[in-house]
Design a protein that fits this description.
The chain is mainly beta. The protein contains 1 helix and 9 strands. One of its GO terms (biological process) is proteolysis.
């Protein structure tokens, strides 16, 4: 089900109103990942026209930063999502940036250029084909990723 309505976003200094924000509702979830069953909602951050980033892009200078907590999250830290000029999480020594492919990928996805693969603390030192771009296409909702 898709709907459209006015949404308000508070940026700390003032409230920004957006008319006609399109959002979806799920009535039945067939996802076998039980960890997602306790999630109150999902937000689309892709490059497609219905993503939140595209819908409010002009008011956030088309910028956002999404920081995941470390895999071994011993400090119970949480991820962060920031928009606009606040979208800079590089001041923390634990933050590692991963640039996106310059061509922007295909469709609604973001694409990362793959330079190496590690399993645990061991680098595999795989030699990727020089002329062929090896990319990683990821989906934050899924444990499945595609090498292309």
């Amino acid at each position: 089900v898709l709907a459209s309505e006015k949404r308000m976003f508070d940026n700390g200094a003032n409230t920004i109103k957006h008319e006609g924000i399109v959002f979806g509702c799920v009535h039945r979830e067939d996802n076998p990942d039980f960890a997602l069953h306790k999630v109150p909602g999902l937000v689309g951050l892709g490059r497609g026209p219905l993503s939140l980033v595209k819908q409010i892009g002009s008011s956030i200078d088309d910028k956002f930063d999404y920081c995941l907590p470390p895999c071994r999250n011993e400090n119970n830290s949480v991820g962060q999502l920031k928009f606009s000029n606040d979208a800079d999480l590089s001041g923390t020594e634990e933050v590692q940036e991963t640039p996106m492919a310059s061509d922007g990928g295909e469709g609604s996805f973001y694409v990362l250029i793959l330079t190496n693969i590690s399993v645990g603390n061991s680098r595999l030192n795989i030699q990727f084909a020089g002329a062929q771009t090896t990319a990683l296409l990821g989906d934050a909702r899924s444990i499945n990723h595609r090498l292309g």
